[in-house]
Design brief:
Alpha-Beta Plaits, 3-stranded antiparallel beta sheet, binds FE2/S2 (inorganic) cluster, binds iron/sulfur cluster, 311 residues
């Protein structure tokens, strides 16, 4: 049976989202139903192309009959479900999640969506005090050994930027621990498992095995983790360097969609070009071949295009 015919036979489930009746295919999530209804639902750890990991809880909604708020990105619809997305309880919970993140993480390069939600939910990034960077070297902390907080300053995830090669840079002071990079490096795309979550509690952080340098790790430099990172924690070195010198200017960039010439798979590329140089290569999330993912050649192998002889 073709996919199209199969889709037509999936029964619809009727649910109520903020007093409006919505019909969605069986197996859909509450987030799907909210989107059908046009409700702007914040998400941080969810991406259409990845398996939901349920870690950020910013997408919570009130589901009648449920004692607790439920994560809409992973809770499946059931017939007759009644959902409220904009109650004081929902807004308070989402706001608190965003405030805890904003108080401890550098969100200056977060996506436009994240910035819009911070405004919509009136997030106070300084609510828990000024950032305390005196305990910032999280990679060297011993499990179970914590300093006593002074109650005046906010703990931070700040740590030195990791630059190990000319391809990409990891700045975990911008990491919200959404797990998307771990998913993309693992079962959802690359199956390399070069990175995972190390540590527990506030010391939890993304790391290679035993915090090895990236070029000593299992990483194959596909850059799929960069493609899914919503905060700029993972970044092309070309972008990082231009930002450091003030030369990164998205208003001067053209984005050209093309097909990767390296092999016959047919991956689509989005070439970001500034000042006649390819400064970043992404891939469209909605493309059936790539779903946003590439290999090292498609992602980084473009220097030969730019080896121009000086006149
Ligand atoms: S570049 Fe690819 S292999 Fe390396 S950590 Fe990122 S997703 Fe994993
Ligand atoms: S590095 Fe980026 S993608 Fe990975 S967990 Fe942190 S914010 Fe998410
Ligand atoms: S987006 Fe639903 S738990 Fe993160």
């Amino acid at each position: 049976m073709s996919d199209a015919v199969e889709k037509q036979t999936i029964p619809l489930v009727e649910v109520t989202i903020d007093d409006a009746v919505v019909r969605v295919p069986e197996g859909s999530t509450l987030l799907d139903a909210c989107r059908v209804q046009g409700v702007d639902t914040p998400t941080l750890c969810y991406l259409d192309t990845l398996t939901p990991v349920n870690v950020c809880r910013v997408c919570v909604v009130e589901l009648e009959g449920s004692r607790t708020l439920v994560p809409s990105c992973s809770r499946k619809v059931h017939p007759g479900a009644v959902v409220h997305t904009n109650t004081p309880r929902v807004r308070h919970s989402r706001k608190l999640v965003l405030e805890l993140l904003a108080s401890s993480v550098d969100l200056s390069l977060a996506s436009g969506d994240v910035k819009r939600w911070m405004t919509d939910y009136e997030v106070d990034a300084a609510k828990f005090g000024l950032s305390d960077v005196s305990h910032a070297d999280r990679d060297s902390r011993s499990p179970g050994h914590h300093h006593v907080p002074d109650g005046m300053t906010a703990e931070t995830v700040e740590q030195p930027v990791k630059i190990h090669d000319e391809m990409y840079v990891r700045d975990y002071s911008k990491c919200i621990l959404c797990y998307k990079c771990v998913e993309a490096c693992g079962e959802d795309a690359q199956n390399t498992f070069a990175i995972a979550v190390a540590g527990r509690g506030f010391d939890a952080r993304i790391s290679t095995e035993f915090d090895q340098r990236l070029d000593d790790s299992a990483c194959v430099y596909c850059g799929n983790c960069i493609g899914v990172c919503p905060t700029g924690a993972l970044m092309f070195k070309s972008e990082h360097d231009r930002r450091a010198t003030g030369e990164w200017d998205e208003s001067k960039q053209d984005v050209t969609r093309t097909v990767c010439p390296y092999c016959g798979v047919g991956c689509n590329l989005e070439l970001h070009v500034q000042d006649n140089e390819i400064v970043k290569v992404m891939s469209p999330m909605d493309h059936s071949v790539t779903q946003g993912h590439l290999c090292i050649k498609g992602r980084f192998g473009w220097q030969f295009v730019q080896n121009r002889e000086e006149p």
